[in-house]
Amino acid sequence: MATLRELLHGLVREGELYEKMDRGFVRCFACGHCCRIPDGQEGVCKVRFNEGGKLYIPWGYVGGAQCDPIEKKPFFHAYPGALAYSFGMLGCDLHCSYCQNWVTSQALRDSSAISSPLRVSPKEMVQDALRQGGKVLVSTYNEPLITSEWAVAIFKEARAAGLVTGFVSNGNGTPQVLEYLQPWVDLYKVDLKSFDDRHYRQLGGRMEPILQSIRRLHEMGFWVEIVTLIIPGFNDSDEELRRLTEFVASVSPDIPWHVTAFHKDYKMTDPGNTSPETLFRAAEIGKQAGLRFIYAGNLPGQVGDLENTRCPACGELLVERCGYYILSYRLTPEGACPQCHARIPGRWAKEFQGQIADHPFLPFLTRRPKRVRVNS
To answer: Which residues contact 47 (CB under 8 A, 6 or more apart)?
Structure first.
């Protein structure tokens, strides 16, 4: 029986986000590492590799697919109540010890992270998203930047079918990959994990490429929302949160900032879980920095008004939430406040069309794909 690495090396095609170099090397531009890869070797992500002076990239499978409320991504200013048909492949360019999707993201680094690939085509993915009632198709679960070519193949089919598309990403991009994605990606969520380069290096990356990507994403017209998982003792100091929120506000005070509660997961079991009080403190720091839309997550019903969207001009309640559930929706068809008529930044539907689900659920695929057996 083949190993996972052997199976994945058979589910590939030549990539587009690279350049050939001398002596058989290639330079990959899918993520901020910009790996210079010799013949016969892999990049940092473990899934993009050089063979014979060509860069081969993941193709023709998913590591998992699931229907989520769009609020779980989280996108709060994009089609509230919509169903997000979410898929991911395997691998990541970082190695966060607290990863909540480690079974897929760390599948080639951690022998206990085994997630067998499911063979599927872009057309089949889109057909199933439509059958499930999905409005948005989202590349997530692993790091989508390192599988951008596959995501774009699916998104081309999705756009033709009238669907919205999105990335849920660590933001460790390059100018090349963002230009490649721009025609095909509508929504982009970035995990801004810290505002300390030392912390990013502990996670296997650098901070500057993420900051540059956030600036570029906003300038290029993607709808951007930012999430910071608040981890006690890691990134929760007032000073770090102040610098982080001042940076986000300098890009645009209209970017929604989500502060979410850490809970013990994967290899990080030392710090305690994040309290509601810590999220309130982070939100107040963000407010002082000038951010106009701040949300708290992972503690439904415990964070007061920080689950809701209010008009920053008059304070009118526009979208009321509890967790992923939409309790009320009052935006006008133009995406404005009904009280003072201020336009609310985001991607809004003409009307609220109800909510298919307020919790994640596994789809029954139209054609059950072939799961490839893995020798663990």
So the answer is: 8, 57, 58, 89, 90, 91, 108, 146, 147
Q: Is 233 exposed, middle or buried (0-12, 13-18, 19+ CB in 10 A)?
A: exposed
Question: Is residue 371 in some structural domain?
Answer: no
pTM of the predicted model as reported, rounded to 2 decimal places? 0.93
Do 142 and 36 belong to one domain? no
Same domain for 142 and 21: no
Contact, 333 vs 351, CB < 8 A?
yes
Per residue in 326-369, pLDDT tens? 999 999 999 999 999 999 999 999 999 899 888 887 654 444 44
Chain position carrying tokens 């689900």: 357
**pLDDT score for 102:** 53
Indicate if the pLDDT at residue 282 is higher than 90.
Answer: yes
**CATH number for the domain including 251?**
3.20.20.70
Question: Are 8 and 83 within one domain?
Answer: no
* Residue among 85, 92, 103 nearest 142 (CA): 92
Domain that holds residue 191: 61-306
Residues 216 and 273 in one domain: yes
Identify whether residues 22 and 121 lie together within a single domain: no
Q: Which residues fall within 8 angstroms of residue 31, CB to CB, at 6 or more apart?
A: 44, 45, 93, 143, 145, 146, 172, 173, 174, 177, 209
CA dist., res. 223 & res. 245, Å (int): 18
